[in-house]
Write a structure and sequence with these properties.
Blueprint: H1 5-12, E1 14-18, E2 23-27, E3 30-36, E4 44-46, H2 48-53, E5 64-69, E6 72-86, E7 89-98, E8 108-110, E9 119-123, E10 131-135, E11 146-150, E12 153-159, E13 169-170, H3 172-181, E14 185-196, E15 199-214, E16 217-225, E17 267-270, H4 272-275, E18 280-284, E19 289-293
Parallel strand pairs: 1-9, 3-8, 4-7, 12-17, 13-16
Antiparallel strand pairs: 2-3, 2-6, 4-8, 5-6, 6-7, 9-18, 10-19, 11-12, 13-17, 14-15, 15-16, 18-19
Length: about 290
């Protein structure tokens, strides 16, 4: 059977990887292993030592890069547009590198939007294969996300294969809305979780009285970003506290909302612990679709 030019082009425009399989990127004759992160910023991010070894210099005069959460700057770095190949496909794009980055295997990371392939698929290893579809939003300098509406409102939704935590992670605002809508109660369990590129923030375990169902997933507990004024992910309403025998109704007071600090961001991230039941996740840019087989 003859293979048409269209079929070859379609095959070349798809990238399919196993979970944790690195992407081969060749820069200046050196083969790099780049991790595919589906919950971080999408652009090509090199570790600073890799950029230094390859003698990639910041562009002049626009060679500075900042990563912001809302309007809050959390990382400062450099960038430059260079030519390279991605799994043998010639490509030209802006690469960035940031001091203090950690938690990345190999030489750097990239998200689906920044790859030259139209379809990016990850084989997750699970046996379930029922199809689920979500609209794909974002661009190269943001994230590959979708939107989801639950009983308490709407939020941005990320599927993060690199997140190995035990619970999905909600921003403070999204977590408060979910807790209110699903009879949630905050516990005393607090720990730190990585947001991206090694940036850590504290979260608190919230147990839900009713399960939060998102596509094939059902959650009776979530990790919620502890309220603070560091960035928009920490801005939001207070979580419902568990009842105490010492509670005194006469001590209940009415206070005005606290509107100081950054504007709240409503986001929710589903990580590997849930995704591993699925057989595949696909990002199809031309169709603006995220497909899950779970």
């Amino acid at each position: 059977m003859a293979v048409t030019a269209q079929a070859v082009a379609a095959q070349d425009d798809a990238l399919s990887l196993d979970l944790d399989e690195p992407i081969e990127v060749e820069v200046k004759g050196e083969l790099l292993e780049i991790a595919l992160h589906t919950g971080a910023i999408d652009f090509f991010n090199l570790l600073p030592e890799t950029a230094a070894r390859l003698e990639i210099k910041p562009a002049f005069p626009m060679g500075k890069s900042n990563i912001k959460i809302g309007k809050t700057k959390v990382l400062t770095g450099r960038n430059r547009s260079i030519k390279f190949t991605v799994e043998g496909m010639p490509h030209k794009a802006r690469v960035s590198w940031f001091e203090g980055v950690s938690g990345i295997e190999g030489h750097g990371s990239v998200g689906p939007w920044a790859l030259p392939h139209d379809r990016v698929a990850i084989r997750l290893g699970g046996a379930l294969a029922t199809p689920y579809s979500f609209p794909l939003f974002g661009r190269i300098d943001t994230q590959s996300f979708t939107r989801f509406t639950h009983d308490g409102g709407s939020m941005g939704l990320l599927f993060a294969v690199e997140n190995t935590g035990s619970y999905p992670i909600a921003s403070a605002a999204a977590g408060a809305a979910i807790a209110k809508a699903y009879d949630g109660v905050a516990t005393d369990e607090v720990w730190e979780e990585p947001i991206f590129f090694g940036v850590q923030r504290p979260v608190r375990l919230v147990r839900l009285g009713r399960p939060l169902v998102i596509g094939p997933f059902s959650f009776d507990a979530i990790a919620v970003r502890v309220r603070d004024r560091l960035d928009g992910l920490g801005a939001g309403d207070r979580l419902p506290e568990p009842a105490s025998a010492d509670d005194d109704p006469s001590e209940i007071v009415v206070t005005a909302p606290d509107n100081k600090g950054p504007n709240p961001i409503f986001s929710f991230e589903i990580g590997r612990t849930a995704l591993e039941q699925c057989s595949m996740i696909e990002y199809i840019k031309s169709a603006q679709e995220i497909r899950l087989s779970c």
